[in-house]
Design a protein that fits this description.
By secondary structure, the protein is an all-alpha fold. It has one domain. It is built from 15 helices and 3 strands. The chain has a 3-stranded antiparallel beta sheet. Strand 2 and strand 3 form a beta hairpin. Helix 5 runs antiparallel to helix 12, helix 6 packs antiparallel against helix 9 and helix 6 runs antiparallel to helix 10. The longest helix is centred in the middle third of the chain and has 41 residues.
Length: 449
């Protein structure tokens, strides 16, 4: 292992020479001007860089969270049962934020917790659930798709011989919108599933430990025994949170928080795999083929008798399908490229991250990459987990997730996202401005839609 180039952490501790050497190498980043692996980080207007929190830990022990300011287990279940996907996503996003802040009151906000990150992931999911801007993006992309021009000309030649007008681009856009709905439904269901499962565990943790003034091993074990046998990562993660709540050393506490965050992230992403695969592998070609074929059939049925008969014969012979298949293939390619680019981003305070590009370092950490308490990882369990999930240890190069359906690529990006941003206080910002949410939600809001 190379020696560190990022400098020491705050309050460095002597390494246990019997343990594996700390993963403290910081690899060089892509040179400026090299766009091959460069990240595109949409920062918008110039903003003040986030400052890593490195001050002594505030005393948050014994904190009680005001009732009604966060969703209880019952509230999480009620929100998850909401039928309207848009209203439900808004409630989930706010619920994550309120759980994040409640946990922050108990553990301190020097370190973001998993729900803090989930707030922004859920808000981004809402963009896809609402299909914002995508129909216009799709139409514009299809209009400018050079690889679609040739196939369209060939199918139009067939249609002209049958006495039909050219294939309307509006029909292709309609097919795209239908395909997008399939993608949105998968994202919405994944959003619901994870909140219902993990949100309940956050609520249970808050209800169990708020007000405690010291670590109670027996109480913690009884709490952990409440996890199902199918949730070992969640059980371990919340055990790390319980220890972090009373940890005085800022380095140890930061590492316990990151370990908890990473384990919840791994559990969550494993559970999300079928939803992601369904979204990215939706039957796009079938959707496009069905709608375009219906459009052609409708045109044939409107022809006078002799031409109508010839058109039906062409359909039956497979002539129309043979001409249509290249259009379907090309259109599906354009759709997947656009949908993937649209979905694979995460808007967080201060910028929008493109998940298909290498994760950029936080502003002000271009040379160190990680906040002070997480630069040289010493916790053996955390080192082992990072060694398993991180393809480029202590570097952000190669973090780009080119195929979001692959769990290893998702986790490679996510663990570095958690580590680089864990001390960014802006992540605790309200996702929709000032929160006026009180729990339980009114019955009328739960039935929204």
């Amino acid at each position: 292992m190379k020696t560190t180039s990022s400098g020491p952490r705050i309050q460095p501790r002597p390494l246990d020479t019997s343990a594996t050497p700390a993963r403290n190498e910081v690899k060089p980043q892509v040179a400026k001007g090299d766009s091959r692996d460069a990240s595109r980080f949409d920062t918008g207007a110039a903003k003040k860089p986030a400052v890593a929190l490195s001050s002594p830990l505030a005393s948050s022990q014994g904190t009680r969270v005001a009732p009604g300011t966060y969703p209880t287990v019952a509230d999480v279940k009620a929100i998850s049962a909401m039928q309207d996907p848009v209203a439900r996503n808004l409630a989930i996003t706010q619920g994550y934020s309120d759980l994040s802040n409640a946990l922050g009151q108990m553990l301190g906000k020097e370190n973001a917790n998993w729900s803090t990150f989930a707030t922004w992931a859920s808000k981004q999911a809402g963009v896809s659930i609402r299909n914002e801007d995508m129909p216009k993006f799709l139409t514009d992309a299809l209009n400018g798709a050079a690889d679609l021009a040739g196939p369209l000309k060939k199918v139009d030649d067939v249609l002209r011989k049958l006495g039909l007008p050219s294939l309307p681009l509006a029909d292709i856009a309609a097919a795209g919108k239908d395909a997008l709905n399939n993608v949105s439904n998968s994202i919405a269901e994944g959003n619901r599933f994870v909140f219902n499962e993990v949100g309940q565990e956050f609520a249970r943790f808050i209800e169990t430990f708020q007000g405690d003034t010291a670590y109670d091993a027996a109480k913690t074990q009884k709490y952990l025994d409440g996890f199902g046998q199918d949730k070992p990562l969640l059980k371990e993660a919340f055990g790390h949170y319980a220890k972090a709540m009373f940890e005085k050393d800022p380095n140890t506490k930061a590492e316990l928080m990151l370990l908890g965050n990473d384990k919840i992230g791994l559990h969550e992403q494993t559970q999300l795999t079928p939803f992601i695969e369904k979204a990215l592998n939706a039957p796009v070609k079938d959707t496009f083929r069905d709608i375009l074929r219906q459009s052609i059939e409708s045109g044939i049925n409107g022809l006078p008798f002799p031409a109508k008969l010839a058109g039906k014969a062409a359909l039956k012979s497979g002539l129309v399908d043979a001409a249509l298949n290249p259009v379907v293939d090309a259109t599906a390619t354009v759709f997947r490229r656009l949908a993937t680019e649209h979905m694979m981003k995460l808007a967080v305070p201060g910028g929008a991250l493109k998940l298909g590009n290498d994760l950029p370092p936080p502003a002000g950490m271009e040379s160190t990459l990680f906040p002070p308490h997480l630069r040289a990882i010493q916790n053996p369990e955390l080192r082992a987990l990072l060694g398993k999930l991180d393809s480029s240890p202590d570097s952000l190069k190669g973090t780009a997730a080119k195929d979001w359906s692959k769990l290893d690529q998702r986790m490679d990006y996510i663990i570095d996202l958690f580590r680089t941003r864990q001390s960014d206080p802006r992540l605790f910002d309200q996702p929709f401005g000032k929160s006026g949410t009180t729990y339980p939600l009114p019955a009328t809001q739960q039935r929204a839609g």
